[in-house]
């Protein structure tokens, strides 16, 4: 849904070429992320009925459907102004993935399911970048929504995400404390409010120390990934870069 609305709404409404280029990059990444999620589901879920249920959660799980309906109301509706859509988009990327990300990184702290946790760690970097870009775009707007309008949008999203993390897909299933998760989502919302030049609403501390460490280590981990993906020959010496036509291929 977010991807479709980027194509149909933001790419058409935004006038800045650099922003359009970024959204194109985001759309491409979202396709890769969707494929990764599909591979994970195919690998981890063997029961066909359960697998089908997961692929259709947007219609079968009420709190997930609430997320869809919220996106359609806040972003897809033509009556919504572009500045409000920017805030809603930042909210989707910054809040609607917060609970799931924290749950997966909690598993990572326990040293289980390394494939799931690594892939989601890389995906989360993208989600963080999209949130940051939406906030940057917001700060370039000439006419911005009021603090009250922004706060209302974020409060709505917090309620939906809290319901998702404590009732729809309760984190208690993997041993996490639902109450702490509720607090964490409020903490994330306050961070987003500050990024949008608004005061905090909830005023709660981060209950998950491992997430603080995750944010602090992001750059170090990103550098590690870049190093792994570096093009062949970049660190080679001048002697090693000499073309030799006598080598065997």
From TrEMBL:
<dbReference type="InterPro" id="IPR033909">
    <property type="entry name" value="RNR_small"/>
</dbReference>
<keyword id="KW-1133">Transmembrane helix</keyword>
<protein>
    <submittedName>
        <fullName>Putative ribonucleotide reductase R2 subunit</fullName>
    </submittedName>
</protein>
<dbReference type="GO" id="GO:0005829">
    <property type="term" value="C:cytosol"/>
</dbReference>
<keyword id="KW-0472">Membrane</keyword>
<dbReference type="GO" id="GO:0009263">
    <property type="term" value="P:deoxyribonucleotide biosynthetic process"/>
</dbReference>
<dbReference type="InterPro" id="IPR012348">
    <property type="entry name" value="RNR-like"/>
</dbReference>
<dbReference type="InterPro" id="IPR000358">
    <property type="entry name" value="RNR_small_fam"/>
</dbReference>
<comment type="similarity">
    <text>Belongs to the ribonucleoside diphosphate reductase small chain family.</text>
</comment>
<keyword id="KW-0812">Transmembrane</keyword>
<feature type="transmembrane region" description="Helical">
    <location>
        <begin position="82"/>
        <end position="107"/>
    </location>
</feature>
<dbReference type="Pfam" id="PF00268">
    <property type="entry name" value="Ribonuc_red_sm"/>
</dbReference>
<dbReference type="InterPro" id="IPR009078">
    <property type="entry name" value="Ferritin-like_SF"/>
</dbReference>
<dbReference type="GO" id="GO:0004748">
    <property type="term" value="F:ribonucleoside-diphosphate reductase activity, thioredoxin disulfide as acceptor"/>
</dbReference>
């Amino acid at each position: 849904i977010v991807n479709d609305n980027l194509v149909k709404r933001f790419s058409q409404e935004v006038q800045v070429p650099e922003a359009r280029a970024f959204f194109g990059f985001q759309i491409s990444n979202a396709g890769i992320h969707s494929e990764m999620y599909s591979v994970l589901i195919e690998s981890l879920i063997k029961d066909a009925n359960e697998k089908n249920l997961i692929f259709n959660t947007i219609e079968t799980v009420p709190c997930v459907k609430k997320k869809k309906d919220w996106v359609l109301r806040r972003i897809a509706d033509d009556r919504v102004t572009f500045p409000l859509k920017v805030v809603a988009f930042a909210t989707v990327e910054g809040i609607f993935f917060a609970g799931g990300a924290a749950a997966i990184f909690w598993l990572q702290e326990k040293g289980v399911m390394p494939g799931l946790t690594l892939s989601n760690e890389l995906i989360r970097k993208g989600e963080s970048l999209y949130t940051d870009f939406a906030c940057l775009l917001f700060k370039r707007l000439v006419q911005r929504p009021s603090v009250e309008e922004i706060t209302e949008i974020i409060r709505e999203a917090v309620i939906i995400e809290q319901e998702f993390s404590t009732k729809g897909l309760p984190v208690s299933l993997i041993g996490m404390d639902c109450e702490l998760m509720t607090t964490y989502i409020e903490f994330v919302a306050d961070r987003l409010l500050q990024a949008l030049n608004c005061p905090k609403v909830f005023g709660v501390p981060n209950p998950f120390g491992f997430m603080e460490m995750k944010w602090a280590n992001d750059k170090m981990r990103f550098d590690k990934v870049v190093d792994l993906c570096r093009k062949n020959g970049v660190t080679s010496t001048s002697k090693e870069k000499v073309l030799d036509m006598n080598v065997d291929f």
